[in-house]
Amino acid sequence: ASASTLEAPAATQIAADRDCRNFIAGQWVETGRLFENRNPIDNSLVGQVHEAGRAEVDAAVTAARKALRGPWGKLTLDERCALLHKVADEMMRRHADFVAAELADTGMPLAFASNVNVPRGAANFKVFADLFRNVPTEAFAQDVHHGGKAINYSLRSPRGVIAVVCPWNLPLLLMTWKVGPALACGNTVVVKPSEETPSTATLLGEVMRDVGVPEGVYNVVHGFGPDSAGAFLTEHPGVDGITFTGETGTGEAIMRAAAKGVRPVSFELGGKNPGIVFADADLDAAIEGITRSTFQNTGQVCLGTERVYVERPIFDAFVARLKASAEALVMGPPDRTGVTMGPLISQEHRRKVLGYYEKAKAEGATIVTGGGVPAMGDALDEGSWVEPTIWTGLPDSSAMLREEVFGPCCHIAPFDTIDEVIGRSNATAYGLAATVWTQNLSTAHRMGAELEVGICWINSWFLRDLRTAFGGAKQSGIGREGGVHSLEFYTELKNVCIKL
Ligand code: NAD
After folding, report:
1. Is the dihedral of CA 244, 248, 250, 256 positive or negative?
2. What region holds the Aldehyde dehydrogenase domain (predicted)?
3. Best label site of 54, 121, 386, 477, fewest CB within 10 Å?
4. What are phi and psi for residue 456, nearest 5 degrees?
5. What are 173-225's pLDDT values in tens digits?
6. Are 341 and 107 a contacting pair, CB within 8 Å?
7. Contact between residue 248 and residue 269 where contact means Cβ atoms under 8 Å apart
8. Does the pTM of the predicted model rise above 0.80?
9. Nearest CA to ligand 1 atom 40
10. Do residues 497 and 293 lie in contact, with contact meaning Cβ atoms separated by under 8 Å?
11. Which residue has the higher pLDDT, 357 or 145?
12. Quick one: 232 exposed, middle or buried, by C-beta within 10 A (0-12, 13-18, 19+)?
């Protein structure tokens, strides 16, 4: 179904006792080691989460290994793909449940969860099942130097047990983006959702069980990173590959764990993405695009813009218009009519973001708008709200322009030449994404070629075709996923050479 045809559920009631158990070998596993899942809109308790220890992680990896050799590995490709279609259909049948779970964990606006996260989460199963069924492998006829011929062809086989370690910012979408292709390729998975957002991964366990995915194919272990389920899983010798989305620093820790046993990794990491607006841009479109890229999901999108560069002739007009656009955002609970911005994910993350707000002030930034905590005036004041914020006047060397904030904020700086803006955009350790606004074709192509990023959007942002390569340059990632690129990580490609 296309996102636009979907109806949002009328009301979203979250049960106050939505507990999350581990899902191991098709069973719900309680551990007695509980941590709280709180709703960031008002800090109310969503439920308790059962933290997995080494024993549960080991059981999950063992179950995944068993399923690989058992009923899952024995399915034909058609049967496996049909089952993944059923998973997607069942997710859409339970659309309201997934939306409710996502909202309870994140507080994101209803329309975003309803029209983007859940349908795209479901689509991730269909798209990769269809892709894997249809993608060819290579073959070469070879002349052998001392006479005779040979043929080479390649075969793909599943990599094995895949650890999927997920962040909290778009929980269902980012988790299924990895689980979909992993399962389509015939692997089994152990998912470690973020401790902040355990609900949708848990709910997906119900879906897997209800549509008949064999036990052990999809497992979920809950917990934190260091000295908890995340570390236990990534260190586990029974894991054949680790796919991870999260912070670059966490990627470094996981890479150390993966070094033991030389396990491959696929990493989608942090960013400090530039948004570049040339004077010839369609200004209405640029304002709309940069508003979304900066503030959507309260700025908690890895591809989001935190550094905006605007060509000097339109700088003042752009700043005034983006300020108006930011001030028109409506903060509030997910299902209140007209709300366009939710809270940050947690109190802890708010402390980090407010730390950057303070730092920008201390470094002498001009605050164009925002900069603090909004007064919501009711129980929402207990939530993790921050104001959408825009600064100008900081040097490129300031912390605000070098480090990922992951909040609803950006700094706008003027530029004079294309060479200058390319240099400033690239002067970062990160290289995830860029958004460029221009009507000049040559400028567009030059930016596409010279920006050191994995994804360069021209006159758009977050326009995703799931067949295209997705990933980051420099410290923003390792490898690419999406389309056939996902197969490179989720399968072993074997060459068979036959001397004729
Ligand atoms: P995070 O790195 O703090 O946590 C991600 C996951 O890793 C969580 O499940 C966490 O429990 C786990 N973890 C933490 N330490 C670990 C360890 N030592 N060993 C194993 N697991 C560990 O990231 P986050 O705060 O949840 O997410 C926000 C970050 O994710 C931002 O930096 C953002 O840019 C990035 N991100 C990147 C992409 C992308 O596609 N490049 C997409 C979304 C988010």
Report:
1. positive
2. 28-496
3. 54
4. -120, 115
5. 999 999 999 999 999 999 999 999 999 999 999 999 999 999 999 999 999 99
6. no
7. yes
8. yes
9. 268
10. no
11. 357
12. buried
Interatomic CA distance for residues 68 and 71, integer angstroms: 7
Checking DSSP bridges between strand 27-29 and strand 305-311, what pairing results, if any? unpaired
Q: Assign residue 5 a region (left: φ > 0; alpha: ψ between -120 and 50; beta: otherwise).
A: alpha
Measured in whole angstroms, how far is the alpha carbon of residue 112 from the centre of its chain?
A: 14
Name the amino acid, one letter, at 73: G
CA 12 to chain centre: 24
User: How many angstroms is it from 250 CA to the middle of ligand 1?
Assistant: 6
Enumerate residues lining ligand 1, CB below 6 A: 165-169, 174, 192, 194-195, 224-226, 230-231, 234, 245-247, 250, 253-254, 268-271, 302, 404, 406, 432, 472, 476-477
Helix (H) or strand (E) holding 295: helix 283-295
Which residue's CA is minimally distant from atom 17 of ligand 1?
Answer: 225
Contact (CB, 8 A) for 234 and 242: yes
Q: Which amino acid is at 151?
A: I
Q: Which two tokens stand for residue 29?
A: 């596993």
d(CA 230, CA 234): 6
Tokens of 438: 């221009």
Q: What is the ipTM of this complex?
A: 0.96
Predicted confidence band at 355 (pLDDT cuts at 50, 70, 90)?
A: very high
Instruction: Give the whole-angstrom CA distance, residue 170 versus residue 464.
Output: 15
